[in-house]
Amino acid sequence: MQKPQGESVNGVHTETETSGKVITCKAAVVLGPGQPFVIEEIQVDPPQKMEVRVKILYTSICHTDLSYWKGESEAYRVYPRILGHEAAGIVESVGEGVVDMRKGDHVIPIFNGECGDCVYCKCDNSNLCERFRVHPLRSVMVNDGKCRFSTKDGKPIFHFLNTSTFTEYTVLHSACVVKIDSKAPLKKMILLSCGVSTGLGAAWNTAKVQAGSSVAIFGLGSVGLAAGEGARTRGASKIIGVDINPNKFIKGKAMGFTDFINPNDSKNPVHEIIQEMTGGGVDYSFECAGNLDVLREAFLSTHEGWGMTVLLGIHPTPRMLPIHPMELFDGRRIIGSVFGDFKGKTQLPHFAQQCMRGEVNLDEFITHELPFEKINEAVQLLAEGKSLRCVLHL
């Protein structure tokens, strides 16, 4: 067992060689729903066949982490567990069979993996993967059904969303690790692990927003704002933000939104307000709140004949869609989008290049920075709607 000491230029330790050995490091472990994260020393096993062990340098908290932490769905209640799925870091070592990465490479984890060999990965119309698609119920490694994390006395600590990034070192299957340009700023690249890719990709890849079109975005968290950024970069002429937190409008205006609606400010349904603003409805709407009543408003806010609603919010309740089948005969469509329809390993390296060239504005998404040990403060900032992304430095 080895505890890393010292680092090279790339951030990988040099005073001791840890490849093939168990590493002792710090992690933020959640022990139960709503309980504070506990920073404790854990043991991280070496990567097995087709796995990669990564030294995490930056990570952040997404609303999916927040939802699990709150225990909103009983099905996800597996403890102790290491959450986190937005991060960036450096490869510490690779397991047998990994040929597309090596020690020292700059990488980001992805919760929606891409093996490249299954029928899903080979299909141009899907970004899912037969074995490594997003799977909230999975809490162990795919290869052998075991954990790579354990307590100091050898008890297992469970995984989360194929990634588990609230730790100094993590182990992932290579299908869930994307190598990026070593010149890319890792602190910003964490946004590509989930929030920005999900929202912006929904506008680019799922809806294929056209220049001059109108857009309504329901829920102005990171995903919603990213959808707006995607619409802006595609030349949308009207981008309407809908949220009950008026503080979100300040950020939205800075990011190119043209109009804002607070549902609490009017007795009329939001869809009626939008229809009046746009002469019948928007071309595209994005539901980013995880609320079925909001989803219905988003659906009805689009124009009859061609309107499209993209579902992005996570809906943990057993309630069904609030849409009558006959309403689809009015020409409106509704579609879900996972990870912005990006094929992670195939397309994210190019997306990272676009971000490096300034084609996408990433700076506005990072609102706070804290040391890793203050992760509970970062959770509260997100829960209270005070932050978009708080970067945690490990």
UniProtKB/TrEMBL annotation:
Cofactor entry: Zn(2+)
Keywords: Metal-binding, NAD, Oxidoreductase, Zinc
Catalytic activity: a primary alcohol + NAD(+) = an aldehyde + NADH + H(+); a secondary alcohol + NAD(+) = a ketone + NADH + H(+)
Segments forming domain Alcohol dehydrogenase-like C-terminal: 223-341
Gene Ontology MF, one: zinc ion binding
EC top class named in words: oxidoreductase
GO biological process, one term: formaldehyde catabolic process
SUPFAM superfamilies xrefs: GroES-like, NAD(P)-binding Rossmann-fold domains
Enzyme Commission designation: 1.1.1.1
Metal-binding as UniProt keyword: yes
Recorded superkingdom: Eukaryota
Entries under InterPro entries matching the protein: ADH-like_C, ADH-like_N, ADH_Zn_CS, GroES-like_sf, NAD(P)-bd_dom_sf
One annotated Gene Ontology cellular component of this protein: cytosol
Alcohol dehydrogenase-like N-terminal domain span: 49-181
PANTHER family, alphabetized: ALCOHOL DEHYDROGENASE (PTHR43880), ALCOHOL DEHYDROGENASE-LIKE 4 (PTHR43880:SF56)
Family according to the record: Belongs to the zinc-containing alcohol dehydrogenase family. Class-III subfamily.
Assembly notes: Homodimer.
Protein name: alcohol dehydrogenase
Origin species: Vitis rotundifolia (Muscadine grape)
